[in-house]
Design goal:
Layout: H1 20-27, E1 34-37, H2 44-52, E2 57-62, H3 65-71, E3 79-83, H4 89-95, E4 101-107, H5 112-116, H6 143-149, H7 152-163, H8 168-178, H9 187-193, H10 203-218, H11 221-235, E5 236-246, H12 249-261, E6 280-282, H13 292-297, E7 305-311
Parallel strand pairs: 1-2, 1-4, 2-3, 4-5
Antiparallel strand pairs: 5-7, 6-7
The structure holds S-adenosylmethionine.
InterPro entries: RsmH, SAM-dep_MeTrfase_MraW_recog, SAM-dependent_MTases_sf
Catalytic activity: cytidine(1402) in 16S rRNA + S-adenosyl-L-methionine = N(4)-methylcytidine(1402) in 16S rRNA + S-adenosyl-L-homocysteine + H(+)
GO molecular function: rRNA (cytosine-N4-)-methyltransferase activity
Length: 313
């Protein structure tokens, strides 16, 4: 299916949607269909999905209060915004009588708006509180809680695993030494505390990795993703489309394994007759990546990996 939609030029001040055309094609949109966007953000993808619906309906999730505010701009009978973590996907849709659905889109990670708001604490470019919670109201752990309260072993684990920080052990020890007798509660405070182990000339890349690790942990992103993906098998009708875009290798590996094997780790399970029970068929063996043209306009698209699958009959 091809569309005449403009794609990467459809940005809003809130967020510029990545691989818009590819995502919409992946969803195989039908005007009367029922769709879910589990990561509304600035509504870049949601707005375009809605444009295509006549009798259909779109349910969009986001756990962020600013996204909820933004969603009011799209108010119309075909649209329902759900302020919730996407780990509650099945229940939230069931409560609204919205099952099964024809397609589900997930555009993981944070929005440009979250990233560019200094008080949210996501970006190394500003000073601000060490927060990084996407849903600042639900009492989840903030980045500051992690820095000040986690054990050295846990800090080592998250810096290594979620940030792929090469000197994760030294970094964890440095944080633990720096927090003795004081609380590290700001971005500037953290940068100063770890300056001695931040590689010269590679500060930006290094800090981005450290911040990525804190963000993933603060929002429990890996668990939420696994819980949401597991529920997609119950939420999508047979023949329905699963469209997931991720921005780092750990996420993409979970998505890839889930589509290929129906599970996140280990091998495909077979019954006594050698039959498998994998709920999806991949429509893209390799992940789709953004065009050079899109990446030139939107550097955030560079790391995006899009995977599309169809629910088995
Ligand atoms: C990359 S942005 C989505 C951008 C959107 N596709 C657009 O083009 O405007 C990701 C959004 O998903 C939300 N999000 C991330 N993880 C979530 C989760 N577990 N539950 C609900 N929302 C989540 C974030 O708050 C953020 O607004």
């Amino acid at each position: 299916m091809s569309t005449t939609l403009p794609d990467y030029q459809n940005d809003t001040a809130y967020h510029r949607p990545v691989m818009l055309r590819e995502c919409l094609e992946g969803l195989d949109l039908q005007p009367g269909g029922r769709y879910v966007d589990v990561t509304f953000g600035g509504g870049g993808h949601s707005a375009r999905i809605l444009e295509r619906l006549t009798t259909g309906h779109l349910y969009s999730f986001d756990q962020d209060a600013d996204a909820e505010q933004e969603a009011q701009k799209l108010a119309r009978p075909q649209f329902t915004f759900i302020r919730s973590n996407f780990r509650d996907l099945y229940t939230a849709l069931q409560q609204r009588g919205a099952l099964p659905v024809d397609g589900l889109l997930a555009d993981l990670g944070v929005s440009s708006h979250q990233f560019d708001t200094p008080e949210r604490g996501f970006s190394t470019r500003f000073d601000g509180p060490l927060d990084m919670r996407m849903n600042a109201e639900d009492g989840d752990t903030s980045a500051s809680d992690i820095i000040n309260e986690y054990s050295e072993a846990d800090l080592h684990r998250i810096f290594g695993m979620y940030g792929e920080v090469t000197n994760a052990r030294t970094l964890a020890a440095t944080v633990v030494a720096a927090r003795r007798g004081q609380t590290i509660s700001t971005i500037a405070g953290l940068k100063k505390a770890i300056a001695s182990v931040t590689p010269r000339g590679k500060e930006n890349k290094y800090l981005a990795q450290v911040f990525q690790a804190l963000r993933i942990e603060a929002n429990d992103e890996m668990t939420a993703l696994q819980e949401m993906l597991t529920q997609t098998a119950q939420v999508l009708r047979p023949g329905g489309r699963l469209v997931v875009m991720s921005y780092h290798s750990l996420e993409d590996r979970l998505v890839k394994n889930f589509i290929a094997k129906g599970k996140f780790f280990g091998e495909v399970e077979k019954d006594l007759f050698g039959r498998t029970n994998v709920p999806f068929d991949a429509l893209t063996r390799k992940p789709v990546e953004a065009s050079d043209e899109e990446v030139a306009l939107n550097p955030r698209a560079r790391s995006a990996k899009l995977r599309i699958a169809v629910k088995n009959e």
